[in-house]
Each structure stands twice: as structure tokens, then as C-alpha cells.
Amino acid sequence: MGPALCEVVDAQGVAGAEPPSSPGVAERVVRDVGPVDALAVNRTVAPARTASAARRRRRTDGKPPMSARVTVRPERVQDVAAIAAVVAAAFANHPRSDGSEPRIVERLRARGALVVSLVAEEESAIVGHVACSPVSVDGRTCGWFGLGPLSVSPAHQRRGVGRALVDEALSTLRAHGARGCVVLGNAAYYGRFGFRADPALRLPGFPEEHFLALVFGASMPSGVVAYDPSFAAAG
Ligand SMILES: CC(C)(COP(=O)(O)OP(=O)(O)OC[C@H]1O[C@@H](n2cnc3c(N)ncnc32)[C@H](O)[C@@H]1OP(=O)(O)O)[C@@H](O)C(=O)NCCC(=O)NCCS
User: What is the pTM of this model?
Assistant: First the structure.
């Protein structure tokens, strides 16, 4: 069993294409796509954004809509413990999680690969988190990123927090020149953001229908995708 979202990278030969001794992933992304360096964690890359009215749509299942006081903003140094707690809580009952997701986030941060780290905050409590990190295609960094882990604390799920986090993460990537984003997840959930399975991008060992891509630019790269080694080493 591997991490629920990022189990892909537990597969032998999928992750690990970037040895830890090589130049930092984020540094090479900066070199390759320039403006993306502004995504570096702990730098203010976007103003904290209050959830839009659209995200606070009226629900029909009795659950309250997302509070107007939920904001999505980049992580701060003092958020680290709360992020770990939210990630752990979100995946605690996930049937395919081995509990490694908080360590994945920590390793990404330590390696400088956590290029987007956004929290959803409500009344000073962190209730959600999303991470993005560079991926390579056929061993080359090319301005593509992997989204995940995505975590919303159980008590706050199904209120639009996850959507707000993904929307903001994708906006942040686009605004800084990223060329596309991949995610390993449920097409029913990620399809609403425009993610689609595409045979051009492959993640060996995982079902094609769960490996999804969203191209920001004009062209879809072709090849085998590898996530940061943090995913494989996190167990
Ligand atoms: C998945 C997760 C991030 C969604 O966050 P959220 O704040 O509950 O999501 P939202 O409120 O924005 O969206 C909820 C909608 O997504 C749907 N949804 C949630 N998880 C889903 C899934 N795995 N597959 C398909 N749809 C899903 C819900 O049915 C709901 O639909 P509705 O609005 O039509 O009722 C959250 O449930 C979570 O943290 N889960 C545990 C960790 C996890 O699985 N992370 C993602 C792994 S791919």
C-alpha cells in the first residue's frame, strides 16, 4: 500500500529519476521556465483570496456551504505543524493510504520541491492544504507540475474547500508560466477542473484512466512522467 494520492511514485522505477544529489528540482524549473521561481514556498506569490461566491454555492444535502471566511493563501513558516495535522487527518481513513502523505509534504518542502503550498484557513484554523511539485517528462523538466497531496480536514469536506484549493493552485501555476499539471486521482473529481486522461503522458504501473493531465499551453508533451523522489522515499 502506498500514499493514496501519490502511490504512483512508490512504484519501482517511476520515482527516483532525480537523484537527491542532483541540482534542486525547483532550481532546474527556474532555469527551464524562468518565472516559475516565484512559486517558491514562503514567498508571497498571490494575495490571500477569499472564497468566491461561486465556490460557496448553495448545497442541497444539508451540509453548510463553505464559509465566507475561508481564505486560500500560501503557507507560512508557522503553518508547518498544522499542515501536517490536516494532511494526516484527511488521509486517516483513506482506504489506499499508508499514512505517508504528511511526510511527502515535508520531504518536498525540505528538497525545495514544494513550489506551491497553499492552505485553506477558516477562523485562524487551517482546514485544507494542497501541494504542487515539479514533474519530469522522459527525464526532463519542462514546466509541468504534479498536484497533490490534496487534503481537506474531514469536518470541512464537501463544502467547496477542495475546489477552492485546486482552483487557486492551478491559477498560481498558470500565473507563473507553468505549462501544465498532472494529477493521479479520480476523474470524476478532477475532471471538473479540466483534467483529462491523455495517452501521451504515461505513469507506468497505474491505471491510465486515473492519471490525468491539464495543459496550460498549446502543446501536450509526450512521454513518461516522474514525480519528485519525495513521493517514493516518504514511506
Ligand atoms: C478529496 C478532497 C480533497 C475533496 O475536498 P472537498 O473539500 O471535500 O471537495 P469539494 O467540497 O470541493 O468537492 C466535493 C465534491 O467532490 C466530490 N468528491 C469528493 N471526493 C471525491 C472523489 N474521490 N471522487 C469523486 N468525487 C469526489 C464530492 O462528491 C462532492 O461533490 P458535490 O459537490 O457534487 O457534492 C477531500 O475529500 C479529502 O481531503 N479527501 C481525503 C484525501 C484525498 O482523498 N485526497 C485526494 C486524493 S486524489
Answer: 0.81
